[in-house]
Amino acid sequence: QAIGDPRIRFIGLIPNGQLADFYNSLDLFVFPTAVEGYGLPPVEAMACRRPVDVLKDAIIPVEIKSRCMVVERLEDVLCDGNFLELAIKDVDYDGNYAFAKEHSWDRCVDEYVKLYEEVVGR
To answer: What is each CA distance from 86 to 16, 91, 103, in whole angstroms?
Structure first.
């Protein structure tokens, strides 16, 4: 059981200015969501070259999920002493980092501007 496990901490809100320090403090980023609009936290963890774990039945974009370790249950991650060793070995850190770097606010704004220009016929 995860409760009382010293490896797990529920720390609440992390200010934007401290997110990189937070991700860099992790051995593994576990994203236990069932449904997510896009899944920015895993991408942020990838930008910090951290392995990311998601649930098999999580509804997140396939381009993100395919870059993560996928498990049936969170217990598979938390109870298997060898999981972290195996997980870290199989991560494409360079590929995930490059993927994450494609996601910037400037690029997002540029894509929306192009979309709006197409809609209004410019």
So the answer is: 31, 9, 27
Which pTM was predicted? Answer: 0.74
E strands along 17-92, which residues?
29-31, 52-55, 69-71
Structure tokens at 70: 């996928």
Condensed to tens digits (0 to 9), the pLDDT of residues 74-121 reads 776 666 556 666 666 678 889 999 999 888 778 778 888 898 898 998
Residue 31: strand pairing partners = 54
Q: What span, in angstroms and rounded, lies between the C-alpha atoms of 17 and 101?
A: 18
SS3 71: strand
CB distance 61 to 39 below 8 Å: yes
Cβ proximity of 25 and 49 under 8 Å: no
Give me the residue label for tokens 């498990």: 71
> For residues 20 and 35, what is the distance between their CA atoms, to the nearest angstrom?
24
